[in-house]
Design goal:
The structure is a single chain. The mean pLDDT is 95. This protein is an alpha/beta fold and 297 residues long. The protein has helices spanning 9-25, 32-52, 56-72, 79-86, 89-97, 206-213; strands at 135-144, 154-158, 178-182, 188-194, 199-200, 219-220, 223-229, 236-242, 261-262, 265-267, 284-288, 291-293. It is built from 6 helices and 12 strands. It has 2 domains: 4-54; 81-293, Protocatechuate 3,4-Dioxygenase, subunit A, CATH 2.60.130. The structure holds benzoic acid and fe (iii) ion (FE). Residues 111, 113, 160, 223, 225 line the site of fe (iii) ion.
Length: 297
Amino acid sequence: MPTTSEVPDRQRQVEDELVRKVLASFEQTPDPRLKQLMQALVRHLHAFLREVRLSQDEWQYAIDFLTATGHITTEHRQEFVLLSDVLGASMQTININHASDDEATEATVLGPFFVEDSPEIPLGGDMAADAPGEPCWVEGTVTDTDGNPVPGARLEVWEADEDGLYDVQYDDGHLAGRAHLYTDDQGNYTFWGLTPTPYPIPHDGPVGHLLDKTARSPMRASHLHFKATAPGLRTLVTHIFVDGDQMLDSDAVFGVKRSLVKRFDRQPGGTLTPDGRELGGQSWSRVRFDIVLPKTS
Ligand code: BEZ
Ligand code: FE
């Protein structure tokens, strides 16, 4: 297969001509944004095909891969989102739309395990329910970028148990490891969760096969998900990660940002808990996460 630079002039002209024709076919698109998107897509797609001198078998393989990605996708499993995640496309779209800002808390991927209408817990309540794992006391504040506390901010929190499973992956589908709560009058919040542990993204489908073929790990760095909403402020979807976690530099979906890596202080069994909760000699951890939300513009 020749490289692009070795393509004879006549051949190059044939390929250039096709790109021109396809671009021209979108020229009359009434919506200017759609026109921009389609023409840029055509330019980049053809540049890719020509750069790698794609074989017809490889193109068919790609079609079969996307077909399989569609076939495994259901209401509960979104393989295309997973594909976007492992290609870094989800994270890049977040980067583009949340300009790096020293003041506001950084965003990261939503992931496929968020569920609307989680149970409400009071401040200091336990979102883990009966999910197995080491208890973790989570505390923090929600403020705006001027430092004003945000009372009544809604926090959705969800995480995998110590076996790496979200409740939606349990056979009986019962709820655990997810809840929502509201900040108090001073913008403070506290709750009990679980010390996060690493787990693999679903890897028994086409995306898992791709990771396998490319010697990539399906493991995500240990994390706890947050979604914070408050009137007049920009909604934040993010996680916090565990300082010292082995997977911080190899997160399968490129979701780790330095500012989101937090110290989870491990407490030996028998250490008094902040709210007097009795843990029967079990070890626990604690972490602080202060959330800063920018105003909606
Ligand atoms: C998650 O953190 O839950 C997740 C994110 C992206 C892909 C798979 C899982
Ligand atoms: Fe997750």
